[in-house]
Design a protein that fits this description.
The structure holds two protein chains of two kinds.
Chain A lengths: L15 H18 L2 E2 H11 L11 H10 L3 E7 L5 E7 L1 H29 L2
Antiparallel strand pairs in A: 1-3, 2-3
Helix pairs in contact in A: 1-2, 1-3, 1-4
Chain B lengths: L1 H16 L3 H26 L3 H12 L2 H12 L2 H19 L1 H30 L10 E7 L15 H10 L3 E14 L6 E8 L3 H5 L5 E2 L14 E4 L1 H8 L9 E4 L2 E8 L16 E4 L4 H5 L7 E6 L5 H18 L1 H4 L3 E6 H8 L2 H33 L1 H9 L4 H38 L13 H27 L3 H7 L9 H36 L9 E7 L8 H17 L3 E7 L8 E7 L12 E6 L4 H5 L3 E4 L9 E5 H7 L9 E4 L6 E9 L15 E5 L7 E8 L6 H12 L6 E5 H8 L1 H35 L1 H9 L4 H34 L11 H27 L3 H6 L2
Parallel strand pairs in B: 3-8, 5-7, 14-19, 16-18
Antiparallel strand pairs in B: 1-9, 1-10, 2-3, 2-9, 4-7, 5-8, 6-7, 11-20, 11-21, 12-20, 13-14, 13-17, 15-18, 16-19, 17-18
Classes of the chains: A alpha+beta, B alpha+beta.
Chain lengths: 123, 888
């Protein structure tokens, strides 16, 4: 179980692992929660990770752009709770497929590593 | 698959993201603002004040500008966008410095324009293959004449009997054909005109390898004397003369009152104008009767062949040599020392026009000009680069990487070179369209010079490479700046000041050296032309009209009829007002002619093969007086002379050095006029083929009261411009025979000019390039010096303040300028000696290492360099020390 106890600097796009993780989290959030704007996604990620995950919220946007360019999420303009113009994102069917594939991949990798660590640590 | 498609979608999205920037930025602002607003609200709910809530929200959000940058990098294609930005910036910089831009573009345009024009010519002449399948396997067959009878001639026409034996005994060729271009007159039409025809053996079409467009070509048995007359038309003739009529195969072609059935039409692709075999209006079977076929000693035909599969030219030549040796043994009288050779057709055509050497030299010249142009650009670029030292340092301080600095500089030069390339292309198109008409006389007939896609690619490549070469040095230099030093010292002193004078001096040395070689080449050609024009042609070419006639067999069957026609025509021509004198000869000077073996009384040849061949001409009385050829001994022909000869001075000296040649007997062993002739006079020498012949060829003019001459050329000297006579002479001919055209009407002056046209062409082009090179070198020196003076303003100011006089400043600047120039002259001199060898074949009357030319060129270049240095030097001497010391 990985625990992030301090703020993540996910703004650096060169850290591939964290990049992919963020994509996964965004997709999962949208899948679970339905259409959200950027603030909503950030808050939900913090919620879903039991507040263990805190990050610079703005760094979501480049990731969201990439997901949208790849066709995994779609966007629509609407009004925020504050009656401001905001973009709402929702997961697409292709996104759902990607989410499923990535989830399976992640679980597989985590399982292998957990087994390896489990052998030296016991339960 | 999904990965692939999503990548594609990302790319598509990125491309879309490049447009509508303003809207997208506004959207991004809105989105961020909404997010920040929500965060702020949340913080307010937690109990923070407005201010604190906002600050906290911003902190939680992250660096807005940084995130926006990352976002923008993802949204579009950053590399492409920066490139476009660089280009726009480069364009702005160029606009801000119009002087630099104009000079640079002009320099490149001249260099690239000239290059493209010459490349097009080279391509049109040297690189375009013949329009026949596997054209490299087509060879021309020639005799190699014995050198002692034909000194200096490496090829000779073939004789029928020998050709037939070659054909029978060789295995190297899959097809062989003899042919002969002969003009005939189109008769029974409103306007009789002479049209060029190719008389070919039927196998000719197998050699050429192209199928007829309509109908058929000749069968192998169609060249018998008894065969019906047939003809194959060329596409152009069918179009122009018969209006491309569909029923052409049922029509007749009437030549000299003979009917020829048209049996086929060849496609336009086969018409290669430079080769006489395919330049005619029609092909007619070449008929050899038994007598023709037995002719071994008279060489009057051309031959062409196609190499058999897998046979090389060398192998074919080896076989021909073996066969020739065999024939020499079998027929010692005619064939001793007569060899045979096969030359690839394309090579022969190019060499025959002596184009290759000239074009290669010109290509070198063009390369030089481009190098000089690039050197100029590099110099200009260096000057500008150093001016921007401070700007570069500031950019670097703001975070530009070295790569970005280089890219920024490169884009400016790439833009420059593209603009220069475009300007150059425009210039080239202009030059080619103007030049096509001018150059038509100087290149193989019918070659059209057009700009092709290959040329555009070449030009573009040169533009890009020029930009790279010119841009790269200053770009590299700039990026190495030590930021601190540059920012401290100020804009004028950016960059390491030590290295640059050497680089700039080196560039000047190169420019001067290249210019020297170019101008020297031009100078040599000018002297060559001068020498050629100064050659005494042995006759007076002013105001002499020439026109040829060929009497058709049908109307002029007997010698008497021919004599009657020519004599009467001469009488009428002489009666035309304005004509001082007129006569006939078979070939005028500088247009080639017949060569025959002779045997001289008192110099008996051991055998016929040792007989020297001399140039022979048939001429009427008063020919030499019409042409103003000096009569040195004896007298001109008289009407009633029988078998009389006028020999040239060189012939008299060769055969009768110590005796009186008058009355001597000469036997002509072959040709149209055999028998024994006697000398009645000695005349001056006249060049047969070119003015640059170093040793005059022995020539004999023949005249007899009984003669059988079909082809003659009329020469008529008038008191005024001879071209006005064409009409009157045409009328005189028409009054005697309405169906007889005047062939190739011309003037002797034009013929003489035409004989040196290729040297003239080379000279003019080299002179043109030299002028461009001089202009470029001068502007280069001027630019370098101006800049150097500007940079040394402080130093000069100090000197003046310390008491230096105007003269001293001037001397200092000028000597500084002339040092690289002198070095350049030295290098150029050595270079000229080296390339002199390459030019040797083009020169006449002047050696490649001619000292007079080199000294003149040195003086010219030094003068140009001096002139270019004067203005900056004067500017330097007038520097006000106070102003200079105060400014940075």
């Amino acid at each position: 179980m990985y625990v992030f106890t301090r703020r993540l600097a996910i703004s650096d796009p060169r850290t591939e692992v964290l990049q992919g993780t963020l994509d996964l989290m965004i997709l999962k959030t949208l899948d679970t929660m339905g259409a959200q704007h950027g603030y909503g996604i950030a808050r939900r990620i913090e919620q879903l990770s039991n507040d263990l995950l805190r990050m610079n919220q703005g760094t979501l946007y480049p990731a969201v752009l990439r997901l949208e360019q790849r066709g995994w999420i779609s966007s629509k303009w609407g009004l925020s709770e504050n009656n401001r113009r905001a973009k709402f994102y929702s997961i697409t069917r292709a996104g759902q497929r990607q989410l499923a594939a990535e989830t399976e991949n992640w679980e597989r990798v985590a399982g292998i590593i957990a087994r390896m660590l489990g052998q030296t640590q016991g339960a | 698959m999904p990965r692939f498609t999503s990548t594609l979608r990302e790319i598509a999205g990125r491309i879309r993201g490049m447009f509508a920037k303003r809207d997208r930025e506004a959207d991004l602002d809105d989105e961020f603002a909404a997010h920040l607003d929500l965060l702020t609200q949340e913080n307010i709910r937690r109990g923070l004040s407005q201010e604190d809530a906002r600050y906290a929200a911003r902190r939680e959000f992250g660096g807005v500008e940084q995130i926006k940058e990352t976002y923008r990098d993802r949204r579009g294609l950053p590399m492409l966008e920066t490139f476009l930005l660089d280009l726009r910036f480069g364009g702005r910089m160029l606009r801000k410095n119009p002087g630099f831009t104009a000079v640079a573009i002009l320099t490149l345009a001249l260099g690239i324009g000239a290059n493209t024009a010459i490349f097009s010519i080279v391509r049109a002449v040297l690189l375009r293959p013949l329009p026949f399948p596997a054209s490299e396997r087509i060879v021309r067959l020639f005799h190699v004449p014995p050198q002692k009878s034909f000194p200096g001639m490496s090829v000779f026409p073939i004789s029928p009997a020998n050709f037939i034996d070659w054909k029978a005994q060789s295995h190297s060729f899959e097809a062989m054909a003899a042919y002969r271009p002969v003009p005939r007159t189109l008769t029974e039409t409103a306007n009789p005109e002479s049209i060029p025809l190719s008389f070919v053996q039927p196998e000719f079409f197998s050699v050429v390898g192209i199928q007829p467009e309509l109908g058929r070509v000749f069968y192998s048995g169609e060249d018998q004397p008894s065969s019906p007359h047939v003809a194959v038309l060329s596409h152009t003739f069918w179009k122009n003369h018969f209006g491309s009529r569909a029923d052409i195969l049922s029509q007749d072609l009437i030549l000299d009152h003979d009917r020829y059935t048209i049996i086929g039409v060849m496609p336009a692709s086969v018409e290669f104008k430079a080769w006489s075999g395919t330049a005619g209006a029609a092909w007619i079977p070449l008929v050899w009767n038994d007598e023709d076929r037995a002719e071994r000693g008279n060489h009057n035909y051309s031959a062409v062949a196609r190499l058999g599969p897998g046979v090389s030219v060398a192998q074919a030549n080896a076989e021909l040599q073996t066969i020739s040796a065999r024939l020499a043994v079998a027929y010692p009288r005619e064939d001793t020392d007569w060899g045979a050779t096969a030359i690839p057709l394309q090579k022969f055509l190019i060499d025959a026009y002596n184009i290759r050497a000239a074009l290669l030299v010109l290509f070198g010249a063009v390369g030089f000009v481009l190098l000089i142009a690039c050197a100029n650009i590099a110099n200009l670029a260096l000057a500008r680069a150093l001016n921007r030292g401070k700007e570069m340092a500031v950019r670097a301080a703001l975070g530009a990487s070295r790569l970005q600095l280089i890219r920024q500089c490169m884009s400016e030069f790439m833009l420059l070179s593209f603009l220069g390339g475009a300007a150059g292309l425009a210039l080239a198109l202009l030059a080619l369209s103007a030049g096509n008409s001018l150059l038509a006389d100087h290149l193989p007939p019918g070659t059209q010079i057009t700009l092709k896609a290959g040329v555009l690619a070449f030009t573009l490549a040169i533009s890009i490479i020029s930009g790279l070469i010119a841009g790269i040095s200053p770009a590299l230099r700039m990026s190495k700046t030590s930021l601190n030093d540059t920012l401290k010292l100020g804009s004028d002193r950016g960059g390491s000041s030590a290295e640059n004078p050497r680089t700039r001096a080196l560039l000047i040395v190169c420019e001067i050296a290249l210019s020297f070689m170019l101008v020297n080449g031009a100078g040599l050609m000018i002297r060559t032309l001068g020498a050629l024009q100064a050659v005494n042609p042995g006759f007076d070419s002013k105001n002499v009209f020439t026109g040829s006639f060929g009497l058709p067999k049908q109307s002029y069957a007997s010698p008497e009829k021919k004599i009657a026609f020519y004599d009467e025509l001469l009488r009428r021509v002489r009666a035309i007002p304005g004509i001082e004198s007129a006569s006939y000869v078979d070939n005028v000077p500088l247009s080639g002619g017949s060569m025959q073996p002779i045997s001289v009384e008192g110099h008996p040849a051991a055998a016929a093969q040792d007989a020297i061949e001399i140039a022979t001409r048939t001429a009427y009385p008063q020919y030499i007086s019409t042409m103003h050829i000096p009569l040195q001994l004896g007298r001109d022909f008289r009407e009633d002379d029988d078998h009389a000869l006028l020999v040239s001075q060189s012939m008299a000296r060769a055969y009768w050095p110590d005796e009186d040649p008058i009355g001597r007997q000469v036997s002509f062993l072959m040709g149209r006029n055999t028998g024994t002739w006697h000398v009645v006079g000695v005349v001056g020498d006249v060049p047969g083929e070119t003015l640059s012949q170093l040793a005059p060829r022995a020539t004999a003019y023949q005249w007899s009261r009984d003669r059988d001459w079909t082809y003659l050329t009329l020469v008529a000297r008038s008191s005024a411009n001879p071209s006005t006579l064409e009409a009157s002479i045409g009328n005189a001919v028409h009054s005697l025979d309405t169906g007889l055209p005047v062939l190739r009407p011309n003037t002797m002056e034009k013929i003489v000019e035409g004989s040196i046209s290729s040297q003239q062409f080379t000279m003019w082009l080299l002179a043109g390039f030299s002028a461009i090179a001089l202009a470029l070198a001068a502007s280069g020196i001027y630019g370098v010096l101006s800049y150097a003076v500007r940079r040394r303003k402080r130093e000069i100011g100090i000197r003046v303040a310390l008491g230096a006089r105007v003269g001293q400043i001037l001397t200092m600047v000028l000597t500084g300028a002339m040092k690289p120039v002198l070095l350049g002259l030295g290098v150029g001199l050595i270079g000229s000696l080296l390339i002199g060898k390459a030019m040797q074949s083009l020169l006449f009357g002047v050696k490649p290492a001619d000292p007079l030319t080199m000294i003149t060129v040195s003086l010219v270049l030094a003068a140009v360099a001096c002139a270019a240095s004067l203005e900056p030097a004067f500017r330097a001497s007038r520097v006000d020390p106070l102003i200079a010391l105060r400014n940075e």
